[in-house]
Specification:
Four copies of one chain form a homotetramer. By secondary structure, chain A is α/β, with parallel strands linked by helices. Chain A has helices at 14-22, 35-48, 61-72, 86-89, 94-97, 114-126, 153-165, 177-181, 190-196, 226-232, 241-250, 255-276, 296-303, 331-345, and strands at 2-3, 54-58, 77-82, 102-105, 135-142, 170-173, 199-203, 213-217, 289-294, 306-307, 309-315, 318-324. The B-D interface holds B 75-76, 78, 89-93, 96-102, 129, 131-134 and D 75-76, 78, 89-93, 96-102, 129, 131-134.
C-alpha cells in the first residue's frame, strides 16, 4: 500500500536524522535555551527579515494554536476563524477548553476576507448590548487553508488592514506553510507572511521534521511571558534542542523550501492526471493537497494500491477524496499513481 | 563541562535512535494507532501484569499530568498532593489552568501518607459547609518523589487503602519511575505500582527516550474517552509511532530497567563519595538524584568541571545541591567526580 | 414611555414584596437551607410530580445555564443547541469560558428536532477520527424558545427519545417557562416538562420574581454535589431565603401560572391587532413575545409612546421588532397600544 | 434563638425595602444602566473621592472576587493572598476554576505585608527558571480580614508601594468594609481605601443590603470591557436597578456608615464582656466579628439561647467561637448576651 493519505506518514528528512544522531550524546541545557535552538532562531529570524522577532518551538499544531490564542486573548474575547478552520473543526474544542469561543465566518474555499472581519466588528462594536456577546479579539487563518487554497498578497494585505482597523492581532497557522510558499500559484514570500501577520508559525511536522512548529512573533509585546504559557500548557519540551536541531537543519541550504517545492510539483502532476482523466476536481488547490471527486468504482480501483483520505460526499454519487504528497513522497509512486489514474479513464 | 545537572541533557539511548533510523521512511497511520504503538502497548501491559489496561503515549510530564488530572476530576474537585509535588511547584499552574486547585499536604521528604489523606477527607466531608471548600477528588504522588525518596510497599498500600475508603483515584507520576524501581532500596515492582494505583505513567523522557511518557490506566472506566482529552490538550502527536517505537525498544530485553539501574548505581557511588568526604547529605535518596550540602568553596571547586543544580539554602552557610545521573552518564565521568569529591576533603 | 421592550423592566409581583417585607427581620441560616427554601422546594416538587427531584435556586439565567452545563459535561464534551439558543448568542461565551464548545444546530424557528440530534451523533460517533472533534455530551433547548415558539409534546418526546438513545442529558432553559406553559397553543404541562427532561429551570426573573431561577434535577445523580458548583461559580446567595420566599409565593395559589397566563393573553391581543392592521408577523409565537415586521414610518409612530426591541432586518425595508408583555403589563397599556396599531393602518 | 452566627441572617435595612417597594412598578431598562444605578454610582464616586472611577454592581462576594481577579490576570499569572484569604479557603476553588492559582502567603492574623510581597516577587523574578512557576500577577487582601483585623494606613501604604514596584494591581475585598472603616481602631477612610488600591469593593450583602457588592475601579484601564466579564461570569443582573436602589439608599445620609458603626460598637461591648468575664479572646479584632475561646460548658450554656459559629480548636480543650453583630443586631439582644456572659463567670 502506498500512502497518499496525509503528509505525516513517514519520520523525518534524512538530514535531520543524521544531525540528531551526530549530536545525540552531546550534553545541552533543557527547555529550548541551548545553542541549537539559538542557531535555528537566528536562521529563522533572518529568513523572515525580522531580526527582533521572538521564535519559540512547540511540538505540534493543536498545542501551538491553543497556546498562542490563549496567550493573545483576554477572557471575554473570541477568535474569528473560517468555519472550516482547523481550530473550529479538528481540535476537539481545544480553544474552548482554554475558555474562548471560536467565532466562525462562512467560507467557501477556506479563506476569509477583510470585508468579513470589518462587517463582524462593525456589527459587534456597534451593538447597544455588545457585552452580551463575545468580543472579537483576534483573527486566525491558515495558509495554505485546510482546503489547500492560498491567500494572495492582495487578499492578505486587505485582511491585515481590516485587523489593524479594529486592533485585532492576525495569527497565521502555517502547519503546511512550506507547501504554500513554494506553490507556483503563490505570490507571497516568507517575509510577506512575517510582515503581514502578528504571529505565525512555520510548520515542521508536515514539512520534513519529525515534529515541531516554530512560532514567530513579530511583535513580542503581544504575548509577553510566552514561555510561561508554553510551560503551563504542557508544550515545553525538556530536550528542547531536538526541535532546535530540526529547524536548524531545515533552514540550512534552503532545505525547508526545496523539499516542499518538490512535493507541490508532485501534487500538481497528480492534479493534472485527474484533470486529463476527466475527473472533477474539488476546489482550487495548488499546494500539496489535491481534492478530486471519484465514483465508488474509481475509489475501489485506486484503493487497491493507494491509501487516500475520504473528505466527504461530493454529490452525484461521487465522494470527495484527498491525495496528499509530502517531502517524502517518491517520484516512482507518483508515476505509478498517474498511470493508474490514466487507466481509470478507459 | 560535565553535566550532572539533570537527567535530560542528552538525546536518547542509541538503540532507540537506531530503530528510529531503521523505520524512518516507513509509512504508518498517525495518532498512535500504528503497529509500533500496538507492540509497545502489549509489552507494557505484560510488564505491568495488566493485559486489559489502557496505555497511551504523551510527549512530556507536565502535559501528562494536566491531561490525566483534568480527565479524572469533576469541576468542583481538587487534587491532593505533597506540597513539594511537581504539579504544585514546577508546572506554572498547569493544573489550575485546567480549573482545579492543588490541595497541598505538608511533607518533609516528598511523600504523603494514608493518614494525611484520611484526615483531610474526614475534615472535608464532615464539615457542615463542605461545599464552600474544594472537594478532594483524587490523590497525586510521584515515585520516586521530587526529593528522590521512595514509597515502601507498605506505605503505598496504606495510601491506596485510604484512597479506596474515600473513593479517590490514585495517580502516580512516574517521570523517574525506572530510577525508583531499580533502586536497591525499593521493595516495589512495576506490577506493584500498577496494582496499587489507578493511573500511573512510565517516564520515558528522563529514562532513555528522546521524549514520551506512557500512561497506564488500570481501570479505563475512570477516564473514558481519554483520547479526546489527549487531542484537546494538545498532546496527540501526529507521528505517534515515534513514541511507540521508543517504548517498544525500551521494553525489549529489559532495556528500560537495565539502563536505569546503572544510573542508580552510579548515583549511589557519588552519594558514598560525599559521605566519605564528610559532606552532609540532604534527605534519604537512594535513586538517581543525590542532594548534598556544600560550602561555597566546595561548590566553586566542583563547579569548575561539573554542572550541578542549586536546590536551595541548606543552613550553616551551606547550599543544597543536586547531582543527577542518568541512563547516559558515563562511568569515567563518575570516577572523575568521585576523585574530585575526595580531593575536596583534603 | 410605555415599555414593551422586554419582560424585566419592573420589580416583582406585589405579593412577593409583601412577603419579603413581612419576613425581613426574621433570622434564618444562609445559603438556601432555611425553611422558606424548604417550603418552596416542596411546592415545586409537588407541582412537577417529582417528589425526589433536587431543587436549587440560582440568581439569574446565564449563571444557571453555565452552572448546570459545566456540572453535566466532561471536559471533552460540548452541548448541542439551536444556533439561536441563548447560550450560543447572548451569554458572552459563558459556556466556552467554562471550557465547552456550543455545538450549534441550524434552526428556523428556535427549535431543534430529535432527527437533528440523531444525525449529529451518528456522524460523530461513526467517525474514525471522532476524538479530533468535540463529543456531543448533552442537549440544551429553551422552552419557549428565544423566538417565542413552543415544542409540542410530540416534538419534545421525540427529542427526549433521541437523547436517550445516545445517553445525552436533556436540559431545558425555562427562563420564560410560565409564558410557555400557559399559552393556549401549548399541549405541555409542567409535569410533562419535568418528565421529558433531565434538568430544567423554572424562570423567576421574567415571570414575577425580582430575580431567581429554580433548577429542577429529576435525576440528581447527573449532577452530584451540585451545591459545590453553585458556590464555585458564584451563584450561592448568602441570603438564600430571598429566593425561597419568592418561589414559595409564586407556587402558592397558582400565582406563577395565573400571572403568566394574563401576559400571554395580552400578547395574543397585540398579535391580533398587528394581524388585523395587516402588518406581517415574524414567526409563530403564541407566548408573551411577539415579533412583527414594521416599516420605518410605523416604527417611528409607535416609538413616540412605546419602547420595543429591534430584533433585526426583516427584508423589504422592514425591521423585525419585538413587543413583550409580562406579569406586570397593564391592560390599559395594551388597549392603548392596540388602538395605536389600528391607527397605523389608516 | 438569637443569631450572632454571622452578619447575613436578616433581609435588609428597612429604608432599602421602602425604596424597593416605592419603585417596584416603575419601568427601567435592564442590566445596570438605569437612573438608580447612575445615581448610586455618582454617590459612591463622590464618597471615594474618585469622580472618574468605574463603579459596577455585582450580586455576591465570591462572584465579585472571581470576576475581578479573572479580569485582571493573564493566564500564566496567579494572585497573592494570605493563606487565610477568603479566595483561598472558602470559595470552592472559584479562582482556580477561572484558571489561576492562589499564591498563598503565611499570615498569623489575616494580613500580609509589603515585605512578603517583595520577597515573593524577588524570588520569582530572580529565578532562572521562573517560567516553571506561576507568575505573581496581583495582590488580594480583605479589609477587614477574615479574622476581623485591620490594616493600618501605614501598613496599607507599604503594601501598595510593594505592589507598585512590581507592577501588581492591589485588589481589596471589602465584604465587610463598613465594619472596618467605622471601627474606632481604624485610621483609614473610604478615600484612603480608594486611593491605596487599584480595585476594591464595598460590601452590601453583609452591611445592610439584601444583596449586592459595589466594585470600584480607580483605574478603569486595568479592566477594560469589565461589563463583558460580568455578563460572561453570570453576574449581570437583569433588573440591575435592584442594586442601584440599594446602594443609592446606603450612600444617602451616611446610612452605610452609621448602621455599620452601631454594629461595631455592639461587637466591642460583647468583646469587653468576654474580657471582663476572663475568657481569652482570639486575635485582635476591633470590628463586628469577635472571636473568643470557650470551654465546652460555656459553649453549651450560651448555646441554649444564642447561635454562634464554631471557628476551630483553640487549645487547652477550648474552642474558638465567633460572635458577629450586624446592622440589624438589636441592642436588647446584645444586653441579654452581655448579661449571660457575665453569668458564665460566676
Amino acid at each position: 500500500m502506498i500512502y497518499f493519505q496525509c503528509d505525516y506518514v513517514e519520520g523525518c528528512h534524512p538530514k535531520i536524522l543524521e544531525k540528531l544522531t551526530e549530536t545525540n550524546l552531546e550534553q545541552t541545557p533543557g527547555y529550548g535555551v541551548d545553542r541549537y535552538c539559538e542557531s535555528a532562531r537566528k536562521k529563522i529570524q533572518t529568513a523572515c527579515g525580522l531580526p527582533e522577532a521572538e521564535v519559540h518551538f512547540l511540538v505540534g499544531g493543536t498545542q501551538t494554536n491553543l497556546t498562542v490564542i490563549a496567550a493573545l486573548l483576554r477572557p471575554w474575547q473570541g477568535v474569528l476563524s473560517a468555519e472550516t478552520g482547523h481550530i473550529n473543526c479538528h481540535e476537539t474544542g481545544a480553544i474552548e477548553a482554554s475558555g474562548h469561543k471560536v467565532l466562525s465566518l462562512p467560507s467557501q474555499d477556506g479563506t476569509i476576507t477583510g470585508a468579513q472581519v470589518r462587517e463582524y466588528c462593525r456589527e459587534h462594536f456597534g451593538s447597544g448590548i455588545k457585552e452580551h456577546t463575545v468580543q472579537p479579539g483576534m483573527v486566525y487563518i491558515s495558509h495554505p487553508t485546510e482546503n489547500g487554497t492560498l491567500y494572495t498578497k492582495a487578499q492578505l494585505t486587505e485582511l491585515k488592514n481590516a485587523c489593524r482597523e479594529y486592533g485585532l492581532p492576525l495569527f497565521i497557522d502555517g502547519a503546511r506553510l512550506g507547501y504554500g510558499l513554494t506553490s507556483p500559484d503563490s505570490d507571497l514570500s516568507l517575509q510577506d507572511i512575517a510582515r503581514l501577520s502578528d504571529v505565525f508559525y512555520i510548520g515542521g511536522t508536515k514539512c520534513g521534521a519529525m515534529f515541531g512548529e516554530a512560532v514567530v512573533a513579530a511583535n513580542p509585546a503581544l504575548a509577553p511571558d510566552f514561555r510561561y504559557m508554553i510551560k503551563q500548557r504542557g508544550g515545553m519540551l525538556a530536550k528542547g534542542r531536538l526541535m532546535g536541531i530540526q529547524f536548524d537543519v531545515l533552514f540550512t541550504d534552503n532545505l525547508y523550501f526545496s523539499i516542499c517545492e518538490k512535493a507541490v510539483r508532485q501534487a500538481l502532476e497528480i492534479r493534472e492526471a485527474f484533470c486529463q482523466a476527466g475527473m472533477p476536481l474539488y476546489g482550487e488547490s495548488h499546494t500539496n493537497q489535491q481534492f478530486v471527486m471519484l465514483t465508488q468504482g474509481q475509489m475501489d480501483r485506486l484503493g487497491e494500491k493507494y491509501a487516500y483520505e475520504i473528505w466527504g460526499p461530493g454529490g452525484d454519487g461521487r465522494t470527495i477524496v484527498r491525495f496528499c504528497t509530502s517531502w517524502a513522497t517518491r517520484d516512482e509512486d507518483v508515476e505509478a499513481l498517474k498511470k493508474d489514474i490514466k487507466a481509470l479513464k478507459m
